[in-house]
Write a sequence for this structure.
């Protein structure tokens, strides 16, 4: 479809995924193929060239999973890029920025009702426990891995578990 007015190379990966999920593939098969091809091309880029992606969710931070501050969905945003993780909690005007050297591990944890990502880190100026949750845990995990962040798990998050054991 050479006369397609949309230049998909100018769209973010999130926008492309949204188009791919909502396009009428029967009426516009050529356009759907172009969107799918651009998504595949972007996923094939080396990790350091992957564009940042943002997820909306909730967060918990403090001295442990049981003693800390909590922001429910949609007040936390996790930005994942190859160079940094940024967790912004709007209602508390709080931002945590992690470089690869700061992150010991990212733990994919499951509980009975949710799935969370615990950022185990070595920054002394941040709370020892930092956790993000999203309604799209598989996409969060995939985005982390595509951008060269190592994710451990998924595991079972239990009351007796020490989330920093790895």
């Amino acid at each position: 479809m050479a006369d397609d007015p949309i230049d998909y190379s100018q769209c973010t990966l999130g926008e492309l995924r949204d188009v791919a999920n909502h396009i009428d593939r029967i009426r516009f098969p050529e356009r759907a193929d172009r969107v799918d091809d651009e998504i595949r091309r972007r996923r094939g880029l080396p990790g350091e060239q992957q564009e940042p992606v943002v997820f909306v969710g909730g967060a918990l931070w403090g001295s442990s999973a049981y003693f800390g501050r909590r922001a429910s969905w949609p007040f936390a945003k996790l930005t994942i890029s190859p160079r940094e993780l940024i967790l912004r909690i709007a209602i508390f005007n709080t931002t945590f920025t992690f470089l690869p050297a700061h992150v010991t591990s990212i733990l994919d944890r499951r509980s009975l009702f949710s799935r969370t990502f615990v950022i185990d880190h070595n920054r002394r100026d941040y709370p020892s426990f930092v956790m993000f949750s999203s309604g799209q845990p598989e996409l969060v995990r995939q985005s982390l891995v595509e951008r060269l962040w190592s994710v451990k798990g998924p595991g079972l998050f239990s009351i007796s578990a020490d989330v920093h054991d790895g």
User: Anything to note?
Assistant: The first strand starts at residue 53 and ends at 62. The first helix runs from residue 13 to 22.
